[in-house]
Design goal:
Shape: globular
CATH class: Mainly Alpha
Helix content: 55-70%
Order of helices and strands: HHHEEHHHHHHH
CATH superfamily: GntR ligand-binding domain-like
CATH architecture: Up-down Bundle
Largest sheet: 2 strands, antiparallel
Strand order of the largest sheet: 1-2
Distance between the termini: 31 Å
Radius of gyration: 17 Å
Number of helices: 10
Length: about 250
């Protein structure tokens, strides 16, 4: 699928069918039923990929969404663990998610939404962060850096970073808003990162530096700084798509 009226530069950037969504639902159901017990380690990515007959990127996407929802937590070097119910954020009622982006106008609206919501989520993340939620953001930041070094797009890690900030806010409505907007936000991230990969390495490093500023502000408990850094990053991402890298100051 291509975005209406804009083929140049957009071809091949729309994510494929959402196997990750299906696997996310399946894993969430298995955890709810107790097949993966609270506090236990989930099987390794390779084992999960073989069991569900999907690729590792699909596994990573599903795990990313489970982390964003507070259902699992990641421990560096140890893997993913099922979060105890008492530690999970309250579950939101089941609500429909937005579908994929189909126009440039819709993409711009998505960015306008993100500037407002993600900026405030970062503010409260700096105030309410926990050790686990901060580590989840740090892990996603490291995965983005690894994707840059490997010449990969890194969409899952980038989305996980932003969703992790929303979760760190301690407010279920920020996390829920990110979940409802999962498809448009992922589309925007995918497009921005693929376009960035066509530009010099310095451009990717500039984007990564914006992520680092967000993380460092949250880590330092600088709520105003986190809000400013997140709003600047999302606004810059939008400008880089619509105006080019030189216009995102």
């Amino acid at each position: 699928m291509a975005v209406a009226g804009h083929d140049n530069g957009w071809e091949g950037v729309v994510p494929a069918a959402r196997l990750g969504d299906q696997l996310y639902q399946r894993l969430a159901e298995l955890i709810e039923r107790g097949e993966f017990a609270e506090g236990t380690r989930l099987p390794a990515e390779g084992e999960l990929a073989q069991r569900f007959n999907v690729s590792r990127p699909v596994i990573r996407e599903a795990l990313s969404r489970l982390r964003s929802g507070g259902i699992i937590i990641s421990r560096k070097g140890s893997g993913s663990f099922v979060q105890k119910r008492s530690s999970r954020p309250p579950a939101l009622p089941a609500i429909a998610s937005f579908g994929p982006v189909t126009s440039l106008a819709q993409l711009k609206q998505c960015y306008d939404f993100r500037v407002c919501v993600e900026g405030e989520a970062a503010y409260f993340a700096a105030e309410n962060r926990s050790a686990d939620s901060l580590q989840a953001i740090r892990d996603a930041l490291d995965r983005i850096a690894m994707a840059i070094e490997a010449g990969m797009v890194g969409v899952d890690a980038d989305y996980e970073f932003h969703a992790g900030v929303a979760t760190a806010s301690g407010n279920e409505f920020f996390a829920g808003a990110m979940e409802v907007m999962h498809h448009p936000i992922e589309f925007a991230i995918d497009l921005a990162r693929r376009l960035s990969m066509r530009r010099p390495m310095e451009h990717l490093l500039t984007i990564q530096a914006e992520h680092v500023r967000i993380y460092e502000s949250i880590d330092a408990g600088d709520a105003e700084g986190a809000r400013t850094a997140m709003r600047a990053h999302v606004s810059n991402s939008c400008r880089r798509i619509f105006e080019g890298p030189g216009d995102a100051k």
